[in-house]
Amino acid sequence: MFRDTINPALGKQTYILMKNSFLLLAILSILFISCKDDDPVATKGLTLAINNLATSATAELYEGWIIVDGAPVSTGTFTVNGDGNLSQSTFQIDAATLDKATTFVLSIEPIPDNDPAPSAIKILGGDFSNDQASVTVSHGAALGADFSSASGTAILATPTTSDLGDELSGIWFLDLSSGSATAGLALPTLPTTWKYEGWAVINGTPISTGTFSAVDAADDASPFSGLDMGPPYPGEDFVMNAPAGQTFPTDLSGATIVLSIEPSPDNSPMPFAFKPLVLMLPAMAADHVDYGMTYQANTFPSGMVTR
User: Fold this and answer.
1) How far is CA 67 from each of CA 79, 98, 115, 139, 188, rounded to the nearest angstrom?
2) Is the peptide bond before 265 cis (omega within 30 degrees of 0)?
3) Which one of 21, 57, 198, 293 is least enclosed by Cβ atoms within 10 Å?
4) Domain segments of the chain: what residues?
5) Using 50, 70 and 90 to split pLDDT, how confident is the model at 2?
6) Ramachandran angles phi, psi of 79, nearest 5°
7) Global model pTM greater than 0.70
């Protein structure tokens, strides 16, 4: 009897409406769960403000790293143009990971780079204090040495030949002020992944005087020196085996002498960006005279990293 009082058309409409409502609720529930599962991981910006970075080499990239629980985590790669501008200076990092970082490190990586770990060429490092890290080459993760007291003296001489007419063809990092030859360089000890290297810029071309780790011992090579024994100090006589475009013996008067810091092993025949000591020889230079080298603080990059 109750059933007979209901309008059949109205009952059917109510059923359809209820069915559609349940269907809509089911779809909304699925969408809610799906959206919840796809929520993006919270990120946080890491901003680099670094000065004096060298222009990127063709087959190299700079790569930032944060140290989290003792392990390196990449923050991204970038290049540096001729004006010293970074191609990217802010990187989005997982916020929880970034907040746990204790240290920032900047390395130079090859292209292509098949190793997920940082290379041995780490040029800057700094520990986070709150949300900032002051990064320098003196940090233990980088060169780990303070160069502010670096100094040098060099002389012109050719001790590896008996010819007294070519004495302006050799450069040696010696000091003769005491009346006898002593070490002409005062430099901090480098990590095993770095070495010092001397250079003479001859006719616009930098030519190596050799790499070394100790200032009071002979350097690693003497390809241009004569046949006689040289002193047990870094230096080179440019008297034989001249590279293409050069003529040896030469005259280093007016030349520029550079001391650089090179990664070891070294992936380039040219001087690295770190050149702490420079000597501009006078146009009328004399042999066996002490010439003081100038410390260049601006050869080293430094800056601030903010998270």
Assistant:
1) 21, 9, 17, 14, 26
2) yes
3) 21
4) 3-37, 43-144, 151-299
5) very low
6) -115, 170
7) yes
